[in-house]
Amino acid sequence: MGPLNLPRSVSVLGSTGSIGVSTLDLFEQAGVEVEVVALTAGRNADRLADQALRWRPRIAVVQDEAALPRLRERLKGSGIETAAGSAAVADVAAAEAQWVMSAIVGFAGLAPTLAAAKAGAVIALANKESLVCAGPSLLRMAKLAGGAVVPVDSEHSAIFQVLDPQSAAHVTRLILTASGGPFRTWSRQQMSGATPDQALAHPNWSMGAKISVDSATMMNKGLEVIEASYLFAMPPERIEVLIHPQSIIHSLVEYADGSTLAQLGPPDMRAPIACAFAWPDRLPWPAPRLDLVKSGPLTFEEPDPERFPALAIAKQALAAGGRAPAAMNAANERAVSAFLDRKIGFLDIAGVVADTLERMERQGLAAGADDDAVEGARVTDAAARRVADEVVIRRNSLALE
What is the arrangement of strands in the sheet containing 249-255, beginning at the earlier edge strand? Predict the structure, then answer.
């Protein structure tokens, strides 16, 4: 094996979350030598300080300004610059790093990811919302600046690895696999009483609260359908979802000649991160190896549209186009937050999203082309959050009657 052409400078946006922690752990496990330009976190100043003292970035940034005094206290005398606020996060995303891990959860990750794209970095994309809310613009910006967007989600990484660009015209289907989440075998009646703790207990993956709930509702897969359509220029009718509880096959690509190619591996996010970091090379590291004998039978089933309506809602938003996906994403974030705060039930999450989209369509708030997608996404996000909060209040009042 010849020398690898690895990035020499990196930034990790969202370094204290599960993907950010896995990214830094991968660097440790692989023994790579990188200059860390920036590390950012939401509000976990202590974990960010620990990471900064280990990796010695030029700057460490917390989005929550209230956490800045603690960060400064922990890094006093280290020579590491500190900053706080959303604008500071976007500024460091545009710094001179060759490779940027975009792992900030939610709409908050959009502006920093776009800033990294404009700077011409190779973006390892773990932030779904950047593609869902402004996918065409993000991809266009990255291309114009000479950078690239390499997906980190295990499903999109799988497709990225087995979809030959020279044969893209001959692809007949993209098949995204889903674990089915913690409620895969629950009845709709059982799901109606599901608690936040039960929704957070994912059977295969260790993820943050919002992503875990999205997995439980299967909205995460709906978001991934939208992402796949943008990333791989694939019409929605040629993207399907298949439940695969073992999470061994991460996705599949079907070609016109009947061949179906799949990418397999243990459920470990460091593998797609390694792929994104070394692309187009391969990074040697002590990765968990797949033992198909010990893994047992691999099973598959179709998702139940009655128990998991979020999939259909996402496909409808994708078909509507314009700003509808951004509106759906914002409504889902508010609905998930309301569920975690025990203001609504589990099955109400999809209902809040559907009601929000219907109200916004009636009011013309989700219309608009992609000619100004960035500002449009911001405006739509704010409007959808307002409408979703109104829907939550309305549902609560009806429940009390």
Answer: 239-243, 171-178, 249-255, 260-264
Residue 61 tokens read as 């940034």
Task: Give the pTM.
Answer: 0.90
Q: Are the C-beta atoms of residues 47 and 135 closer than 8 Å to each other?
A: no
Gyration radius of the chain's alpha carbons: 21
Q: How many CB atoms lie within 10 A of CB 182?
A: 20
Beta-carbon contacts of 351 under 8 Å, excluding residues fewer than 6 positions away, are: 395
* 122-146 pLDDT tens trace: 999 999 889 999 999 999 999 999 9
Contact 387, 361 (CB under 8 A): no
CA-to-CA separations, 89 to 58, 182, 211, 297, in angstroms, rounded: 13, 34, 21, 45
- The pairs formed by 2-7 with CB atoms below 8 angstroms and a separation of 24 or more are 4/278, 4/281, 4/283, 5/281, 6/32, 6/34, 6/277, 6/278, 6/281, 6/283, 7/34, 7/97, 7/98, 7/99, 7/122, 7/277
